[in-house]
Design a protein that fits this description.
- The protein is α/β, with parallel strands linked by helices.
- It has a six-stranded mixed beta sheet, sandwiched between helices. Strands 2-1-12-13-14 form a five-stranded parallel beta sheet. Strands 3-4-5 form a three-stranded antiparallel beta sheet, with helices on both faces.
- Helices cover 31% and strands 23% of the residues.
- The protein has two domains: 151 residues, HAD superfamily/HAD-like (Rossmann fold); 99 residues, 2-Layer Sandwich (Hypothetical Protein, Haloacid Dehalogenase-like Hydrolase, Chain: A, domain 2), CATH 3.30.1240.
Length: 263
């Protein structure tokens, strides 16, 4: 029995370049709620960005933010996983100093992005997704706990993946999209585990959708994982359930639920 549905956003529920969700998914979230099923956006985005996207149905959602490092329910933080300050600052400087002048760095707090910009596109992207943000020149200027450190490459991450991902594997370093590499001590799997504990669910009762390597911990944990048809070949080979759109799979789930005899 499914009791929660989790979905990555960029590249999954929101195809790259798309800014807003449309009515179909909102109707599905309401229908899921009528069956007692919570919906969880599970993203590297911050709460402000996720909450704006799901404003029409926010009362039916719990929010997994910053790749699982911050969890919100009813507008309040129910769990947070900060990084040791020394580690976070070391990663930020490594990303900044060793990215051949092409990397821009984002340090994430509870609900603010702190941006070390080279004017190469990161600030425009953060504005596009609707994050709260402020510009800094030194990670030491972040005035709160740091939960995630990311590097943005406007030309794409491929040339830098092997440079940074193995180096920071102790911080769950992973490709998080065509232009992002993320580090955090949490991941979407630990985030879903924490949500399950808070809501009294088993991971086996969770359906999840993802498209990239930072979704693997979540997809490996849940009972019904789906990978996007557009995902890398290695990810499509890892998971037998594929879908072109989460909405198609949710429509099928809702038809099955509606067909069940009333208890």
């Amino acid at each position: 029995m499914i009791r929660m549905v989790c979905s990555d956003l960029d590249g999954t529920l929101l195809q790259y370049g798309k800014q807003w969700l449309e009515g179909e998914i909102f109707d599905q979230i309401r229908a899921l709620a009528a069956h007692g099923i919570r919906f969880c956006p599970a993203s590297g985005r911050q709460y402000t960005s996720e909450r704006k996207l799901f404003a029409p149905v926010a009362e039916h959602c719990v929010f997994l933010c910053e790749n699982g490092a911050v969890l919100f329910d009813g507008g309040r933080v129910i769990a947070k996983t900060p990084m040791p300050r020394q580690m976070a600052e070391a990663i930020a400087w490594d990303f900044w100093n060793n990215s051949d002048g092409k990397g821009e760095v984002m340090l994430s707090g509870e609900n603010t992005s702190y941006l070390m910009s080279r004017g190469l596109g990161m600030v425009d992207r953060i504005r596009f997704i609707g994050n709260n943000y402020t510009l800094i020149t030194d990670p030491a200027r972040v005035p709160e706990e740091i939960v995630k450190v990311s590097v943005y490459f406007d030309e794409g991450v491929d040339a830098f993946t092997d440079r940074f991902v193995p180096r920071w594997k102790n911080a769950n370093c992973a490709v998080a999209g065509p232009k992002w590499i993320d580090t955090t001590l949490a991941n979407k799997g630990t985030g879903v585990q924490a949500l399950c504990r808070a809501l009294g669910l088993s991971p086996d009762e969770v359906m999840a959708f993802g498209d990239n390597y930072n979704d693997v911990a979540m997809l490996d944990l849940v009972g019904l994982p789906y990978i996007m048809d557009s995902a890398a070949p290695a990810l499509r080979a890892r998971y037998p359930r594929h879908t072109p759109r989460p909405e198609d799979t949710l429509a099928r789930l809702l038809r099955e639920l509606d067909a069940e005899p009333a208890r």
